[in-house]
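Materials and Methods. Structural model of ABC transporter substrate-binding protein. The 337-residue sequence of ABC transporter substrate-binding protein from Streptomyces olivaceus was retrieved and submitted for structure prediction as follows.
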Amino acid sequence: MPNRLRPAALALTLALAAAGCGANVSQEEGKAAGATAPSGGHYPVTVENCGEKKTFAKAPQRVVTNDVGITEIMFALGLEDHMAGYVMPDDKGDLTTVPWKDGYRKTKWLSKERISKELVLDARADLVFAGWSYGFNEGEGFTPAALRRVGVDSYLLSESCRNGQGKSRGVMAPLDALYTDLRNLGKVFDVEDRAETLVASFREQVAEAQAKAPKGADRPRVFLYDSGEDKPFTSGAFAGPHDIITKAGGDHVMKDLEDSWTTVGWETVVARDPEVIVINDYGDTTAEQKRKFLKSYKPLANVSAVKNDRFVTLDYVDLVESPRNPAAISALAEELR
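The predicted structure was written out as C-alpha coordinates:
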Protein backbone atom coordinates (compact mmCIF):
# COMPACT_ATOMS: atom_id res chain seq x y z
CA MET A 1 0.00 0.00 0.00
CA PRO A 2 1.53 3.34 -1.00
CA ASN A 3 2.31 5.95 1.62
CA ARG A 4 -0.33 8.67 1.85
CA LEU A 5 0.25 12.39 2.02
CA ARG A 6 -2.83 12.75 4.17
CA PRO A 7 -4.71 16.03 4.87
CA ALA A 8 -5.47 17.40 8.30
CA ALA A 9 -6.98 14.91 10.73
CA LEU A 10 -10.69 14.41 10.38
CA ALA A 11 -12.59 16.58 12.81
CA LEU A 12 -15.76 14.61 13.33
CA THR A 13 -16.12 11.45 15.42
CA LEU A 14 -19.62 10.45 16.42
CA ALA A 15 -20.63 7.68 18.79
CA LEU A 16 -23.52 6.02 17.01
CA ALA A 17 -25.46 3.08 18.36
CA ALA A 18 -26.56 0.27 16.04
CA ALA A 19 -30.11 0.29 14.71
CA GLY A 20 -32.42 -2.60 15.44
CA CYS A 21 -35.03 -2.86 12.71
CA GLY A 22 -36.66 -5.45 10.46
CA ALA A 23 -35.36 -7.69 7.76
CA ASN A 24 -36.13 -7.17 4.12
CA VAL A 25 -37.22 -4.77 1.45
CA SER A 26 -39.92 -4.38 -1.13
CA GLN A 27 -40.36 -1.80 -3.86
CA GLU A 28 -43.68 -0.32 -4.95
CA GLU A 29 -43.94 -2.87 -7.74
CA GLY A 30 -43.28 -5.59 -5.20
CA LYS A 31 -46.17 -4.36 -3.09
CA ALA A 32 -48.36 -4.32 -6.19
CA ALA A 33 -47.43 -7.95 -6.77
CA GLY A 34 -48.76 -8.89 -3.34
CA ALA A 35 -46.05 -8.12 -0.76
CA THR A 36 -47.48 -7.02 2.56
CA ALA A 37 -46.14 -4.36 4.91
CA PRO A 38 -46.54 -4.27 8.67
CA SER A 39 -49.23 -1.92 9.91
CA GLY A 40 -48.41 1.01 12.19
CA GLY A 41 -44.98 2.10 13.38
CA HIS A 42 -42.33 3.62 11.17
CA TYR A 43 -42.81 1.37 8.14
CA PRO A 44 -43.51 1.29 5.27
CA VAL A 45 -41.40 4.27 4.17
CA THR A 46 -40.85 5.75 0.73
CA VAL A 47 -37.80 7.69 -0.46
CA GLU A 48 -36.85 9.13 -3.83
CA ASN A 49 -33.56 7.81 -5.17
CA CYS A 50 -32.24 9.03 -8.53
CA GLY A 51 -35.76 9.93 -9.64
CA GLU A 52 -37.31 6.61 -8.56
CA LYS A 53 -39.65 6.30 -5.61
CA LYS A 54 -38.69 3.27 -3.53
CA THR A 55 -40.83 1.84 -0.75
CA PHE A 56 -39.33 -0.21 2.08
CA ALA A 57 -41.57 -2.44 4.18
CA LYS A 58 -38.78 -3.09 6.69
CA ALA A 59 -35.18 -2.00 7.22
CA PRO A 60 -32.75 -4.10 5.16
CA GLN A 61 -30.55 -6.32 7.32
CA ARG A 62 -27.99 -7.72 4.86
CA VAL A 63 -26.71 -4.73 2.91
CA VAL A 64 -23.67 -5.08 0.65
CA THR A 65 -21.85 -1.84 -0.12
CA ASN A 66 -19.39 -1.13 -2.90
CA ASP A 67 -16.42 1.22 -2.47
CA VAL A 68 -15.08 3.13 0.50
CA GLY A 69 -17.19 6.30 0.49
CA ILE A 70 -20.44 4.35 0.23
CA THR A 71 -19.36 1.98 2.98
CA GLU A 72 -18.49 4.86 5.29
CA ILE A 73 -21.89 6.48 4.76
CA MET A 74 -23.37 3.35 6.33
CA PHE A 75 -20.81 3.39 9.13
CA ALA A 76 -21.36 7.08 9.85
CA LEU A 77 -25.05 6.29 10.40
CA GLY A 78 -24.13 3.43 12.74
CA LEU A 79 -25.60 0.78 10.43
CA GLU A 80 -22.86 -1.86 10.43
CA ASP A 81 -25.25 -4.33 12.11
CA HIS A 82 -27.43 -4.08 9.00
CA MET A 83 -24.57 -5.04 6.67
CA ALA A 84 -23.54 -8.39 5.18
CA GLY A 85 -20.24 -6.81 4.14
CA TYR A 86 -18.45 -4.44 1.79
CA VAL A 87 -16.45 -4.64 -1.43
CA MET A 88 -13.47 -2.41 -2.22
CA PRO A 89 -9.82 -2.58 -3.28
CA ASP A 90 -7.06 -2.36 -0.68
CA ASP A 91 -5.71 0.95 -2.06
CA LYS A 92 -8.00 3.23 -0.04
CA GLY A 93 -5.59 4.33 2.68
CA ASP A 94 -5.22 3.46 6.35
CA LEU A 95 -8.64 2.34 7.57
CA THR A 96 -7.54 1.87 11.20
CA THR A 97 -7.40 5.58 12.02
CA VAL A 98 -10.69 6.84 10.54
CA PRO A 99 -13.65 7.88 12.72
CA TRP A 100 -15.53 4.77 11.57
CA LYS A 101 -12.75 2.23 12.22
CA ASP A 102 -15.08 0.16 14.42
CA GLY A 103 -17.35 -0.29 11.40
CA TYR A 104 -14.47 -1.80 9.45
CA ARG A 105 -13.59 -4.01 12.41
CA LYS A 106 -17.12 -5.34 12.77
CA THR A 107 -18.03 -5.72 9.10
CA LYS A 108 -16.85 -8.41 6.69
CA TRP A 109 -14.59 -7.37 3.81
CA LEU A 110 -16.22 -9.54 1.15
CA SER A 111 -13.84 -8.87 -1.73
CA LYS A 112 -10.99 -6.65 -2.93
CA GLU A 113 -12.11 -7.27 -6.52
CA ARG A 114 -15.20 -6.12 -8.42
CA ILE A 115 -18.65 -6.55 -6.97
CA SER A 116 -20.76 -9.09 -8.83
CA LYS A 117 -24.18 -10.70 -8.78
CA GLU A 118 -22.63 -13.98 -7.61
CA LEU A 119 -20.94 -12.26 -4.66
CA VAL A 120 -24.18 -10.52 -3.71
CA LEU A 121 -26.15 -13.78 -3.80
CA ASP A 122 -23.47 -15.61 -1.81
CA ALA A 123 -23.75 -12.90 0.85
CA ARG A 124 -27.55 -13.36 0.94
CA ALA A 125 -27.90 -9.61 0.46
CA ASP A 126 -31.29 -7.93 0.58
CA LEU A 127 -29.94 -4.55 -0.61
CA VAL A 128 -26.91 -3.38 -2.60
CA PHE A 129 -25.74 0.20 -2.02
CA ALA A 130 -23.60 1.13 -5.02
CA GLY A 131 -23.72 3.58 -7.93
CA TRP A 132 -23.21 4.04 -11.64
CA SER A 133 -19.44 3.63 -12.08
CA TYR A 134 -19.32 2.78 -8.36
CA GLY A 135 -20.02 -0.89 -9.06
CA PHE A 136 -23.04 -0.74 -11.37
CA ASN A 137 -22.07 -1.19 -15.00
CA GLU A 138 -24.18 -2.32 -17.98
CA GLY A 139 -21.13 -3.67 -19.77
CA GLU A 140 -20.64 -6.24 -17.04
CA GLY A 141 -24.33 -6.92 -16.58
CA PHE A 142 -24.30 -5.71 -12.98
CA THR A 143 -27.22 -3.30 -12.73
CA PRO A 144 -30.14 -2.57 -10.39
CA ALA A 145 -32.45 -4.21 -12.93
CA ALA A 146 -30.34 -7.39 -12.97
CA LEU A 147 -30.40 -7.54 -9.18
CA ARG A 148 -34.15 -6.96 -9.09
CA ARG A 149 -34.62 -10.04 -11.27
CA VAL A 150 -32.96 -12.18 -8.59
CA GLY A 151 -34.85 -10.60 -5.71
CA VAL A 152 -32.25 -8.11 -4.46
CA ASP A 153 -33.05 -4.42 -4.11
CA SER A 154 -30.61 -1.57 -4.66
CA TYR A 155 -29.96 1.99 -3.55
CA LEU A 156 -27.98 4.26 -5.89
CA LEU A 157 -25.36 6.72 -4.64
CA SER A 158 -26.89 10.12 -5.42
CA GLU A 159 -23.62 11.50 -6.80
CA SER A 160 -23.89 8.82 -9.50
CA CYS A 161 -27.48 9.55 -10.63
CA ARG A 162 -27.67 9.81 -14.40
CA ASN A 163 -29.17 13.04 -15.69
CA GLY A 164 -30.72 11.80 -18.94
CA GLN A 165 -27.89 13.00 -21.19
CA GLY A 166 -26.44 9.65 -22.22
CA LYS A 167 -24.38 8.22 -19.37
CA SER A 168 -23.40 11.59 -17.88
CA ARG A 169 -24.04 11.79 -14.17
CA GLY A 170 -25.19 14.43 -11.74
CA VAL A 171 -28.57 15.81 -10.76
CA MET A 172 -27.67 17.92 -7.71
CA ALA A 173 -24.73 19.66 -6.05
CA PRO A 174 -22.22 17.18 -4.57
CA LEU A 175 -22.78 18.04 -0.91
CA ASP A 176 -26.52 17.99 -1.48
CA ALA A 177 -26.06 14.43 -2.77
CA LEU A 178 -24.32 13.46 0.46
CA TYR A 179 -27.01 15.06 2.62
CA THR A 180 -29.75 13.46 0.49
CA ASP A 181 -28.30 9.99 0.95
CA LEU A 182 -27.83 10.45 4.69
CA ARG A 183 -31.44 11.57 5.09
CA ASN A 184 -32.85 8.89 2.79
CA LEU A 185 -30.97 6.12 4.55
CA GLY A 186 -31.88 7.61 7.91
CA LYS A 187 -35.51 7.17 6.92
CA VAL A 188 -35.03 3.69 5.44
CA PHE A 189 -33.26 2.40 8.58
CA ASP A 190 -35.32 4.43 11.10
CA VAL A 191 -32.32 6.48 12.27
CA GLU A 192 -33.52 9.88 11.10
CA ASP A 193 -32.23 11.65 14.20
CA ARG A 194 -28.73 10.35 13.54
CA ALA A 195 -28.91 11.49 9.94
CA GLU A 196 -30.04 14.99 10.91
CA THR A 197 -27.30 15.21 13.55
CA LEU A 198 -24.68 14.31 10.93
CA VAL A 199 -26.04 16.75 8.35
CA ALA A 200 -26.16 19.58 10.88
CA SER A 201 -22.61 18.84 12.04
CA PHE A 202 -21.30 18.67 8.48
CA ARG A 203 -23.00 21.95 7.54
CA GLU A 204 -21.43 23.62 10.55
CA GLN A 205 -17.98 22.25 9.66
CA VAL A 206 -18.31 23.48 6.06
CA ALA A 207 -19.51 26.92 7.20
CA GLU A 208 -16.50 27.27 9.52
CA ALA A 209 -14.13 26.38 6.67
CA GLN A 210 -15.85 28.83 4.31
CA ALA A 211 -15.56 31.64 6.83
CA LYS A 212 -11.76 31.32 6.75
CA ALA A 213 -11.41 30.51 3.04
CA PRO A 214 -10.05 32.87 0.35
CA LYS A 215 -12.66 35.12 -1.23
CA GLY A 216 -13.09 37.26 -4.32
CA ALA A 217 -9.92 37.95 -6.27
CA ASP A 218 -7.91 35.87 -3.79
CA ARG A 219 -9.61 32.65 -4.87
CA PRO A 220 -7.01 30.58 -6.75
CA ARG A 221 -7.93 28.63 -9.88
CA VAL A 222 -7.91 24.91 -8.99
CA PHE A 223 -7.80 21.76 -11.13
CA LEU A 224 -8.50 18.25 -9.85
CA TYR A 225 -6.18 15.60 -11.32
CA ASP A 226 -7.36 12.05 -10.85
CA SER A 227 -5.35 10.07 -13.40
CA GLY A 228 -4.48 9.72 -17.07
CA GLU A 229 -1.54 10.79 -19.20
CA ASP A 230 -2.94 11.02 -22.73
CA LYS A 231 -6.01 12.79 -21.33
CA PRO A 232 -6.70 13.72 -17.72
CA PHE A 233 -9.59 12.23 -15.79
CA THR A 234 -11.08 14.93 -13.59
CA SER A 235 -14.16 16.27 -11.82
CA GLY A 236 -17.02 18.17 -13.36
CA ALA A 237 -19.65 20.17 -11.49
CA PHE A 238 -21.45 17.14 -10.02
CA ALA A 239 -18.57 15.23 -8.44
CA GLY A 240 -17.36 15.82 -4.89
CA PRO A 241 -14.28 17.90 -5.79
CA HIS A 242 -16.44 20.71 -7.20
CA ASP A 243 -18.00 21.55 -3.83
CA ILE A 244 -14.79 20.72 -1.98
CA ILE A 245 -12.80 23.17 -4.12
CA THR A 246 -15.35 25.97 -4.24
CA LYS A 247 -16.29 25.87 -0.55
CA ALA A 248 -12.59 25.74 0.40
CA GLY A 249 -12.09 29.04 -1.41
CA GLY A 250 -10.97 27.89 -4.84
CA ASP A 251 -12.27 28.60 -8.33
CA HIS A 252 -12.90 25.18 -9.90
CA VAL A 253 -11.62 25.46 -13.46
CA MET A 254 -13.91 22.66 -14.73
CA LYS A 255 -17.09 24.01 -13.12
CA ASP A 256 -18.81 24.25 -16.49
CA LEU A 257 -18.69 20.49 -17.11
CA GLU A 258 -22.19 19.14 -16.45
CA ASP A 259 -21.00 15.70 -15.41
CA SER A 260 -19.43 14.10 -12.37
CA TRP A 261 -16.15 12.29 -13.12
CA THR A 262 -15.09 12.72 -16.73
CA THR A 263 -12.21 13.10 -19.19
CA VAL A 264 -11.03 16.39 -20.73
CA GLY A 265 -8.15 17.42 -22.97
CA TRP A 266 -4.83 18.80 -21.72
CA GLU A 267 -5.33 21.81 -23.97
CA THR A 268 -8.36 22.77 -21.85
CA VAL A 269 -6.28 22.53 -18.68
CA VAL A 270 -3.55 24.69 -20.19
CA ALA A 271 -6.05 27.30 -21.41
CA ARG A 272 -7.60 27.60 -17.93
CA ASP A 273 -4.21 27.86 -16.25
CA PRO A 274 -4.89 26.44 -12.78
CA GLU A 275 -2.85 27.96 -9.95
CA VAL A 276 -3.30 24.89 -7.74
CA ILE A 277 -3.62 21.22 -8.72
CA VAL A 278 -5.31 18.81 -6.31
CA ILE A 279 -4.09 15.22 -6.77
CA ASN A 280 -6.43 12.31 -6.06
CA ASP A 281 -4.32 9.78 -4.17
CA TYR A 282 -5.27 6.16 -4.83
CA GLY A 283 -4.42 3.20 -7.03
CA ASP A 284 -1.13 1.75 -8.20
CA THR A 285 0.25 5.17 -9.15
CA THR A 286 1.19 7.12 -6.03
CA ALA A 287 0.47 10.80 -5.50
CA GLU A 288 4.20 11.53 -5.79
CA GLN A 289 4.38 9.71 -9.12
CA LYS A 290 1.41 11.73 -10.35
CA ARG A 291 3.08 14.95 -9.24
CA LYS A 292 6.30 14.01 -11.03
CA PHE A 293 4.37 13.30 -14.22
CA LEU A 294 2.59 16.66 -14.07
CA LYS A 295 5.90 18.44 -13.43
CA SER A 296 7.60 16.69 -16.34
CA TYR A 297 4.79 16.82 -18.92
CA LYS A 298 5.97 19.48 -21.37
CA PRO A 299 2.55 20.85 -22.42
CA LEU A 300 2.00 21.85 -18.77
CA ALA A 301 5.36 23.58 -18.33
CA ASN A 302 3.87 27.09 -18.30
CA VAL A 303 0.78 26.29 -16.21
CA SER A 304 0.94 28.37 -13.02
CA ALA A 305 0.47 25.44 -10.62
CA VAL A 306 3.32 23.53 -12.25
CA LYS A 307 5.67 26.51 -12.47
CA ASN A 308 5.07 27.36 -8.81
CA ASP A 309 4.94 23.74 -7.60
CA ARG A 310 1.52 24.19 -5.98
CA PHE A 311 0.11 20.71 -5.50
CA VAL A 312 -2.25 19.45 -2.80
CA THR A 313 -2.89 15.77 -2.18
CA LEU A 314 -6.20 14.41 -0.93
CA ASP A 315 -7.22 10.79 -0.58
CA TYR A 316 -9.75 9.18 -2.89
CA VAL A 317 -12.33 8.86 -0.11
CA ASP A 318 -12.00 12.59 0.62
CA LEU A 319 -13.07 13.38 -2.93
CA VAL A 320 -15.83 10.90 -3.79
CA GLU A 321 -19.16 11.30 -2.02
CA SER A 322 -18.47 10.30 1.57
CA PRO A 323 -18.76 11.53 5.16
CA ARG A 324 -15.15 12.69 4.84
CA ASN A 325 -16.07 15.50 2.40
CA PRO A 326 -16.54 18.22 5.04
CA ALA A 327 -13.15 17.49 6.61
CA ALA A 328 -11.60 17.60 3.13
CA ILE A 329 -13.05 21.09 2.66
CA SER A 330 -11.43 22.19 5.92
CA ALA A 331 -8.09 20.67 4.94
CA LEU A 332 -8.08 22.20 1.46
CA ALA A 333 -9.16 25.61 2.79
CA GLU A 334 -6.02 25.64 4.96
CA GLU A 335 -3.86 24.86 1.93
CA LEU A 336 -5.46 27.59 -0.19
CA ARG A 337 -5.14 30.36 2.41
